[in-house]
């Protein structure tokens, strides 16, 4: 690359930059943009003027007249007034001589839009009654929307001089897509031009994956907006009850895309469920979730490094027998689950404020996650800041145990009465003794401004998702890596993967089930390779919990 001297001017530098641009397969658009900018004549003229002024300034000029300053000010004002009176609006092309006889000249609107490689940002349809090609919708942020010259209901007659009256909408869309730079449209305005789209800022968390290329119902696949489950979308228009316009939060693309509306998506899911193509929750076979160790001593030991931590014993989910639930309660629970259709959840930004109760931290885990070990390590490291809910039990108190420390010891009658009044988040039976975690026990930890950590079966999440708890849900799953055989010395032999053993298959199935059926309720996913790395990840998440802003259901903060 040539080297510039200190005396090189800006204009020379600009010309050199233009000549040195090289095409890059990964950045063609950026290179094209820079080349267009550097090659602009007006920029070149400005650089030359700048160089002349700098050269003249270096000559240290002296005024010829004492009144030179005043004259210069007057000259600047005259130039300003002259420029201000100029009209710099783009010059539209002349109105075509040949105009259809079925409408007056005054009703025709010639619109010239400038777009690069972006879509025009409008969809079209054919009117069922008149057969006219009309603008169906304007996409927020697109070229058509930014111009303010095209409206919903406008009839499209020509594109760059090509008559479109007898063309199919897909053919017209192809013409628009292939047009670059300046596009000239001949339009018959709608009888009553609709007002500009009202500003709408509604944020929705997607509870499902969406790919418009796989959606045969969408009016224009190219205008669709793909998204992943748990992504937050900014819905900018709900004018169409079937297809909303939205943008992904954090996306740099200014143009909105089409997504199915909540009502439309629910109707589709209901139809699929009725026809049997969408499985119902009550028909799902649930794999086992996280289970602590199976040693008998786990039921009575809650010590870590010599410190006792309540609630760190054997999970009552281990050895769980039939839940103490009436047939009517079970029926209601099944009906509630079967009616849930996962579409969108309205959310808002939330940050924990001083004086507020800490958010509840909920751990769910697939088989092999060993959540109790993570809880032990976190609480033992900082017992002043973190705590766990003291469980209830009907077993007799042992001599070394204290009421409200290891357990809340209650009679079977009292336990069943609380169970009847829905005071337990979870409960189970082990060795003919009842165990359970009550909502009151969780609230007691939060009341003393400690972050309460609970590990529950995923089914319990729905009961905790309230403004009172504002749960932050962390899904912990073990890392399962395929092992590979050592490749033989022969180059013709290929490296092959060793199939997962039965235990690994169960872990993978458990994690996949939770992700598929409860993943939309999860705020963070933690992949556990070993206890130390998992603890470091968990500690990082907990440190950000009170500092960062998070998306939460809007009902939690209203």
Automatic annotation (TrEMBL):
Residue intervals of the SH3 domain: 199-269
PROSITE patterns cross-referenced by the UniProt entry: GUANYLATE_KINASE_1 (PS00856), GUANYLATE_KINASE_2 (PS50052), L27 (PS51022), PDZ (PS50106), SH3 (PS50002)
Protein name: MAGUK p55 subfamily member 3
Keywords: Cell junction, Cell membrane, Membrane, Phosphoprotein, Repeat, SH3 domain
InterPro entries (alphabetical): GK/Ca_channel_bsu (IPR008145), Guanylate_kin-like_dom (IPR008144), Guanylate_kinase_CS (IPR020590), L27_C (IPR014775), L27_dom (IPR004172), MAGUK (IPR050716), MPP3_SH3 (IPR035604), P-loop_NTPase (IPR027417)
Pfam families for this protein: Guanylate_kin (PF00625), L27 (PF02828), PDZ (PF00595), SH3_2 (PF07653)
Protein localization: Apical cell membrane; Cell junction, Adherens junction
Keyword Membrane on entry: yes
Native organism: Hipposideros armiger (Great Himalayan leaf-nosed bat)
Domain PDZ: 110-191
Family: Belongs to the MAGUK family.
The L27 domain, residue ranges: 6-61
Domain (Guanylate kinase-like): residue spans on this chain: 358-543
The keyword Cell membrane belongs to this UniProt entry's keyword annotation: yes
SMART domains referenced in this protein's UniProt entry, alphabetically: GuKc, L27, PDZ, SH3
Description of how the protein assembles with itself and partners: Interacts with HTR2C; this interaction stabilizes the receptor at the plasma membrane and prevents the desensitization of the HTR2C receptor-mediated calcium response. Interacts with HTR2A. Interacts with HTR4. Interacts (via PDZ domain) with CADM1 (via C-terminus)Interacts (via PDZ domain) with CADM1; this interaction connects CADM1 with DLG1. Interacts (via Guanylate kinase-like domain) with PALS1.
Entry GO terms, CC: adherens junction; apical plasma membrane
Role, per record: Participates in cell spreading through the phosphoinositide-3-kinase (PI3K) pathway by connecting CADM1 to DLG1 and the regulatory subunit of phosphoinositide-3-kinase (PI3K). Stabilizes HTR2C at the plasma membrane and prevents its desensitization. May participates in the maintenance of adherens junctions.
